[in-house]
Design a protein that fits this description.
The structure holds 2 protein chains of 2 kinds. By secondary structure, chain A is α+β, with helices and mostly antiparallel strands. Chain A has one domain. Chain A is 44% helix and 19% strand. Chain A has a 5-stranded antiparallel sheet with strand order 1-2-3-4-5. In chain A, helix 2 runs antiparallel to helix 3. Chain B is mainly β. In chain B, strand 2 and strand 3 form a beta hairpin. Chain B is globular, with a radius of gyration of 16 Å. Chain B starts with 23 loop residues before the first strand and ends with a strand. The chains are: A alpha+beta, B mainly beta. Chains A and B meet through strand 1, strand 2, strand 3 and strand 4 of A and helix 1 of B.
Chain lengths: 167, 151
Amino acid sequence: MLTAEPTNPSEFLGSPENNAIGGAGEQLRAKVHEGLRATLGNSIFWAETLLRNKAQITLRSLAALRSNWDSYGAPTPNTTAIENAARILEHMTLSDLALARIVPSAEGGVGFCFSKDDRYADIESSNEGGIIGVRYIGMQPPALIEIDGTEAAIEAALKEIRNHLRA
Amino acid sequence: MPERPERMRRNGRPEDGSFKLNEKLFRRYTQSHYINGQFSNTGFSFNTPPSVSREKYSQAADVLFSEADEFANWGVLSFRVEDLPRSFPPEVPQYAFWPKHRPLEDNYAHSEVWCDRIPETGEYVKPSSSIRKLFRALLSQRVVVEIAAAI
């Protein structure tokens, strides 16, 4: 039989209940609960899992956008754009996930946007199947991030963005 | 129902192809494309000529006007005519961008940002994806918020 998986660390503990042990049991439960929360709460793995799940939910919500969502005729991100966006997501690290804003593209597609101080970069997955990015600092001329769609190129683009934001 | 400002009506007025370089062009936006105070180019599209409203015949708030009040809490941004390069990219010019007055009966200020190849074809030419990306980024660097979006 299928059962719902816990989605939050505290759910692994089950629900509190009274028994013959009484207060000592409750204290032990609270201590274990706190320990588990601290362990999982500080876990990079757990943090990355939560952010990745959140990003996947955002992607699904973009696929459900109505067309003309920007009031200027923007199309809904199509399956091609969403699938390529999911591939980009797979290459993202915890820090990428923490910084990225996932937005619909007015040209049709999905954008992963990063900004830190006066530095900006993005990767855009289009409805036409292309993946392209750009980066710039303040008012300096923007530089293209060319991506041929391969896993290696996506990885290289994200590395370029990390370096750009870090510099 | 809100009443359309009289200045928005065409009332038989002709097309006016004359734009000053410092004239503002207005456009609606929502917060989703503002990333840490920077407007993302993903909020612009040049698949077809994007619609704008020209300052000479309108006010920023006019682009939020709707009888059904569907743009309550949206914001308005602007860029200027001088932000549209007549030759782009600068190193190897391939395209020209400029505003075109395209008045509508209920929105006289309606205009579009046009693009043509160099040398010109007389038609709207959708730039290549890399030129579009660069130009959208360039334009996003220059936008100014006229009315802040609340959504």
